[in-house]
Amino acid sequence: MKRRAGEREKELKKKKLLEELGQNRLPYLTPADADFHQLWKTKYSKLVFKKSDAVPEELHQMVQEGFLTLQKHDCFFQDLVRIKGKDFVTPVSRILIGNPGCTYKYLNTRLFTVPWPTEGYDIKYCSPQIRDACKALIRLNDYLHIEAVKALKGQNLFETKEIKDTTVIDREQSFATSLTAKGSVSKDQSSCCIPEDDYISLKNRTSYNLTLLNYMDPLQMQYLKQEPYFGMGNMAVSWHHDENLVERSTVAVYSYSCEGSAVEESNEQKLKGRDPAVWHVGLKVAWDIETPGLAIPLHQGDFYLMLDDLNMTHQHCVLAGFSPRFSSTHRVADCSRGTLEYIFGQCELALQNLQTDSDSMALSLKSLETAVVKQVEEIHNEVEFEWLRQFWFQGKRYLKCTDWWLEPMAKLEEFWRKMEIMTSLVLSEVGKEEQIEEQRNETITCFLLVLTERQRLRKEWTAR
């Protein structure tokens, strides 16, 4: 209900903004405009942009080869998402890579990570090339984490001026040496000391646990939406805030447009506004018609950081160029309800109310208290609609990379079957005459609400 209310509020704001605009368009600036840098400094200062030459060439090569490997193995998929109760297929194809057992939910669709190589986990990849691609992306993840720490320090977005080095454990000494040689890690950082609370806050806001990879070839698209407020042209991704992130966490985006496969920059006379041949990231202050927007060109190997609360106070979009483009968008996803550890814990909590007779092996419920029944049935719904159906309706896409998820999903299915038995046992028990009528009525009322929701969701998922 809260999500639907939020969607309605966004629609009302969008409608009001478009009504205020009428046939007019808001102004926006590109680097070619005289006031561009002043506007960036005053209204978009928490956006940090780095050109490709700031990144070690070795890292560029590893990551870009990884993109092409994943594409070659057909690992990118268009997502079926739900907006305002209707299903849409995204124009952009995606794959989620990250910590084992993590998920990321956007627009009512839960994506499951292809796990990157992680110590303590036995991850079998479908090919050595896919393993190398995932390995390259965790290297990029480490690099962008370091850059985010430096950027936050540079803007003094923490209470202390000294920020403890949060560099991850080097996975290969040679790679770490090359990064240090490029100036990514300063020697004095490791000796800095800050209060523990600040250090924990810094780590929570910059330790990316996954990356959402995107790919699109604009020339293969039959239709792309036009940007509605500024007249910026074709959009690959509409205006939005990134969802389900740790509050005030940094988002890092590495861009790789396949330059040379199409006209990358217009050779015609000077264009007014952004060059339509070049990919751009667009930014605007959320629901504001006074502040001009920004359109920043993205070339091969550039990256940018959205620091602190920029993702909450501003919106961004991706403006399509002519060439195919990959991007790797690194996030600190809010996994409080989105990891295997969490959902297995929920299942164990629910199954505490199920007992087996040692003689007859018959199953029964330990408690029929309303609160207990409600909790178990809500977990039942969560397992079915937030995990099992989300995983299987996406088909066998994950098997293109690894079979890692099959074992935990089989375990979840077994938990779900036991919860189905528990639902039947509740129905059986509330029908018995020895139940106190007042307690029985309370249990039935609560129970029916959850079952009604389950029935509604099953119909909705069947339609999908």
Principal-axis shape: globular
Q: Could you tell me the strand content as a percent range?
A: 15-25%
Radius of gyration: 25 Å
What's the pLDDT, averaged over the residues? 87
Helices and strands, in order, run as HEHEHEEEEEHHHEEEEEEHEEHEEHHH
Spans of at least 5 consecutive residues whose pLDDT stays below 50 are: 159-192, 266-270
The helix count comes to 11
* Major sheet characteristics: 8 strands, mixed
Give the fraction of residues assigned to helices.
25-40%
Structural class: alpha+beta
Describe the structure in brief.
By secondary structure, this protein is α+β, with helices and mostly antiparallel strands. The chain contains eleven helices and 17 strands.
Kindly describe this structure.
The chain is of the alpha+beta class. It has 11 helices and 17 strands. Strand 3 (77-83) and strand 4 (86-98) form a beta hairpin. Helix 3 packs across helix 4 and helix 8 (340-351) packs parallel to helix 10 (406-430). It starts with a helix and ends with a helix.
